[in-house]
Amino acid sequence: MKTILFPTDFSEASENAAHYLMGLAGQVDITEITLLHSYATEGPSIIYMSDFTEPIVIRQDEVKAESVVRLNDFRTRLAAMTAADIGISEISLDKSLDMAIPEIIREQNIDLVVSGIEPYGKTTDQSTGTKAIKIALDLQVPVLIIPADATYQRIETLLLTCDLKNVARSVPKDKLANLLTELEARLIVVNIDFENRHYRPDTLMEQTGLHRALDATGAEYFFIEHKDIVHGIVEFAEEKKVQMIISIPKEHGVFDRLFHPGVTKKLASVSPLPIMLIHN
User: Fold this and answer.
1) What does the alpha-carbon distance between residue 280 and residue 267 come to, in Å, rounded to a whole number?
2) Which of these ranges, 43-52, 246-255, 262-271, has the smallest mean pLDDT?
3) Cβ distance 117 to 147 under 8 Å?
4) The CATH number of domain 157-273, selected from 2.40.50.320, 1.20.1640.10, 3.40.50.620, 3.90.20.10
5) pTM, rounded to two decimals
6) To which H or E segment does residue 57 belong?
C-alpha cells in the first residue's frame, strides 16, 4: 500500500477519511498520496431561472480554479496530519470519476483507492463515496471505504465475508496474504446463512476449497446463522472486535447487500468499520 489514490468531494466524510488514512500511514509504508477532484459538471452550462432574469452561466475556468484552490487547501491540511515523509500530489480534472480513477490507477501504478462515505440520509448518487463503491466492481486494485464516523484503530484483525460460491476463482488469496503481512494482522473468515437457505450440493466442496486457499494465512473460520446476512456480518464484526471488514466485489453477492442504506447507517452510526473491497 505504498501509492494511494484519494478522490475527494471536500465533504465532512472525505475529511474524516483523510484523518483515517493518515492514521493508517503510521502502520503501513505509504509513500505517495494522489488527491483527485472531479469538477465535471453534470447538466447544462447555462441555467435559466425564469424568463425575466439573466441566465446563470457556469464558467468552466472558474469551476476549475475553485477546484485547484480547494485541493491545495485539502493538501495542506492532509500534510499537517502526519510527520511521515509522504509525497502528496493533486489532480483536478473535468472528467467523471468512473473514467478518471481507472486512468490514474494505470498511469501511476496505484496500490489502493481510499474514499469516505457519508452517513445514512446524506448519501447521494453523486457523492464520491457512492461512486467509488460502484466503480469498485470494475477495478483491479483494492478500494477502502471509510464511514463518516470511523476513527483509526491499529488494524490487528480483519474479517473476510465469504458466500462459498466459486471460492477457488474468487478468493484473492495472494492479495490477502500480502495484506496480512503488511498489516501484521490476523484473519477471521465468516459465512452466514439461516436455516440452510443458501446450502447447495457443492457447499461442502466450497468449504474445502476455502480452507485450501486460506489455511496458509492461519485464518479462523466461522459458519454462523443469522436471518439477515449483512446485519449478521456487522454484529459478528463487533463481537470479534475486528478493525476492518474485507469483502469481495461480486455482482449479486454479499457485496451488493453490504451497501444497503440501512447497513450503511449502522456502519456509520453504531459500529463504524472501514470496508476494503478486494478483487481476485
Assistant:
1) 25
2) 262-271
3) yes
4) 3.40.50.620
5) 0.83
6) strand 56-57
